[in-house]
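Quick note —
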Amino acid sequence: MMSILKMIGIRTHVLRGNVSARLRSTQQLIRRACLATALLVTITIVAQDVHAAGERQTKFTRISTQYIAALGTPDATSGNGAQSWGLWPLDPGPRGVKLSRYPSLKDSGGVAPARWKLDEADWWLEEHGLIMEPPTIPLPPGKYVVTGARKVTAVLTIHPADSRGDRRWELDQGATLYDVTHLACRSARYIPAAVGGSCSPANAKQAAFPVAPGGAMPPVEGCTKQDYAVLIVIGIGVED
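Predicted structure written out below.
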């Protein structure tokens, strides 16, 4: 009798586990669908607002999600230095390599499974401790519809380089860089702290990850670190 009860208990536990797993999976799909819907609605509203104002002759086209690596004071609405910003046309997270797989990455000549190549003297990490492919730097001039997937969506304008090579940036509607930063995404660039010095992903501590939303990326021995804000791009401007 006791063995039968135990078997029933085990079966019930398994069934409950399966139900819980399915429920979590369903909830994740719902959250993703809601986020996608919100982003689509937002870009439509932004495009309508721009045309209604009659101040610009720019049309906005929805694109597959891209990501901008940005530098600047969180409360700034505009600034200089956008020549140091970068663009990931594809989500770099799923294309990344775990720190624990760094030896294999090195043995492969630095070529990742996603076919990007690691630069040992200039490399990037994301919030889960994945070595990422670098973004394309500089970010091309133009207009981008950006959001932090929270409350604010705005048009980011990246101006062409001036005679000194400086590129100015600005957000419309009074939005700040913090407003359009996706806090859950963290990224940092690592280069040697000294000329000719070693700055290896092997020195990064996996225990320091994941990084909390909005938190600073961890230091790595022998490296100088530069944290970048991550902006989600959902549309681009096309001159009419």
